[in-house]
Write a structure and sequence with these properties.
alpha+beta, Aminopeptidase, eleven-stranded mixed beta sheet, 32% helix, 31% strand
Amino acid sequence: MPDELADRVHRNLMAVTSWMGADGLEFRDGELFAAYASELPFLNIAMREPGGRPAEEFLAAAREFFFSRGRGFVVYAHPGDPELEGAATAAGLYEVLHRYPEMVCRERLAELPGDVRPVATPEDGAAYWAICDDAYPSIGMPPGLFTQVFPPDALLRDEIQACLGYADGRPVACAHVSVTDGVGMVGWVGALPEARGRGLAAACTAWATNRAFDMGADVASLQASEMGESIYERLGYEHLFAYRLMGGMPG
């Protein structure tokens, strides 16, 4: 686990997560509590950089922040912060995901065939989240989540570049990248179920990865689902480390 790169990738994920914490946010002193506009614990996130206050105090603050809102939450533990994982286990947090791979790409990818266009308007953004609404239930997300949580203009920030993949004249795939601290995080890659197998999600991933380098990043990163990990490896991503996601619920 290369410490400097892993630290930057982790900080990038914290920063990007903070941009979407529309229902409550604390982000200071290397700690992040972000409440999204959803009660789904997976989207109510507690993260920190190692070396701060004792992990038990961090978890107590997380419980106060999220439970006061009637929310469960998820802690992102990783190999660089064993104290947090140990404290979460001792506190009785349950395992949400044993392994949530963090992957990186160190160079531009070959462009892949497909009709890929930038997200340029709120209407494009609405189409993007609608694709995610249909794509992500296959890995356990509730239907309709993304259009509930993310406004159409969420992808129009200066730090973000997003794209849509088109087939038969309509958007059916998507990906975006968010750049901070020399890291471009590729996120919310998806394709409509009926459009899978055409390579459009891969084409969108390559587009977003290359935009990271265009925007000044020296590495692209992403968090992979079990379904996507082997696909990203074939594209040119490599494993860096894996998060363990641990959750707490009120009551």
